[in-house]
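User: Assemble these into one structure.

Assistant: Restating your components, then the assembled model:
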Amino acid sequence: MPELPEVEAVRRALQPVMERARFERVLVRRPDLRVRLPRKFAARLEGQTVQTLGRRGKYLLAELSSGDVLVMHLGMSGSFRVEIDAKGTTPERFDDERSPGAAHDHVVFRMSAGATITFNDPRRFGSIALVSRKDVQCHRTLGALGPEPLGPEFDAAVLARACRGKKTSLKAALSDQRVLAGLGNIYVCEALHRARLSPRRRAGSIATSTGAPRAPAYRLVTAIKKVMNDAIRRATAPQENRPDGRDAADLPNRFCVYDRDGRRCLTARCTGTIRRIVQAGRSTFFCPLCQR
DNA sequence: CCGCGGGCCTGAGAGC
DNA sequence: TGCTCTCAGGCCCGCG
């Protein structure tokens, strides 16, 4: 369930093997990802050099020498595997497109720096696409993304303005990538818990009628930044060389509310019990006692 | 126009 | 043990 922190960890793992490297060979084993890869995908990518590997929300963006951008999304189950090849050896799977390879290895990038990067995604909710740089701004979803939660431009005033007049729940608003880029089900629950705000609360209630922030907006922004920073630290903790989108280190008690239904609330001095409810078809975990 | 629900897809885990 | 069922959720789309 890669959300912003996990995607950022993937970016940092891929950066050293992708930046300034050229796509020597690209193999599409299965083009039918969430968005089907066009036939010419590999040909269009081969020979191009990665200038920078960036991130926007949950998207990875490789800026290419040609002016194209390779846009990658991990969906629910996507991950990248990096193999540093011994000099001169080419992995078996490049010999034949139909060679077995590992299950769910859909796209393989052979980089000039000697690394082989494999996109693996069992559920194929992920996507990879080539977009011309000038089209990124007007891209359906990419162009409509809200602010980066850790960017300096994201503050209570910005969040309040985005939530002003919204009748939806705070949970739904924070999950909306147009309001804020990068939070998913887990970190929305965590941030709301930290800010002691009910996920059922009307999103518009954190702003005045003119869109100015009320007190909860300040708490929420502080909580979001703290939750994101802590999660990035956790996801990038040196421990394993695993540049994938899965949760790093499945330590217990990683979350304060997520998946803690029926257990005690961890807020200081709170005696509540975490509850699970369903909002818009998704699980929400919260403490009915301290989250108002 | 906005919000909700269904669909996509597969693996994990529960239950019989 | 092995089958079947449900659930997980990022994102898109259609409907009301």
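Residues 104 and 122 of chain A are 5 Å apart (CA to CA).
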